[in-house]
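Chapter review: from sequence to fold.
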Amino acid sequence: MGQNKLLLPFGNTTVLGSVIEAVRTVTSSMIIITGHDREGVEAEARRYNVRTVYAEDYRKGQLYSTLKGLESIADDDFAILPGDLPLIRSEDIRGTFSMLRDYTIVRAVCNQTPGHPVVYRKEHRKKLLAFSGTMKEYLALHDTGLYPASAGCILDVDTPEKYKEAVKKAKAGD
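The token string follows.
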């Protein structure tokens, strides 16, 4: 992107701010894992009074940051959700959690494309921390419920083109 995608403007906030706002309608318990541009992301999180945890070795990849987050949470049901999904809808987050009655893991999907959030019952926290493979490998080992979600669960803003598409969809109310 050439700049921190989480801090790009999005509506009346930022990409990260829009994700925080969606999550906040479901729960007030949220942790943002920071790495690159720690100061900028932490400043944005402070605007929303959201706790942050710094992943010192964030360059090792998303898995390392995810594990850092898992170390930092209470032993309760939890979700993993990247901060670059500005069109994520609170009803998709709420819907994935509602399926934990029938599954121990639930993943949002849109048109058969896996997305986020991925929600877990609390018993998976310690198992994930001890697991030596990837998140994808972990999910393959477990019966995972699939929640039919909106396109916001898969439209990340990894490129300037995807960012423009997300902004356009937001303005159109999609």
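Two observations follow directly from the output. The chain has a mean pLDDT of 93. The chain has one domain: 5-172.
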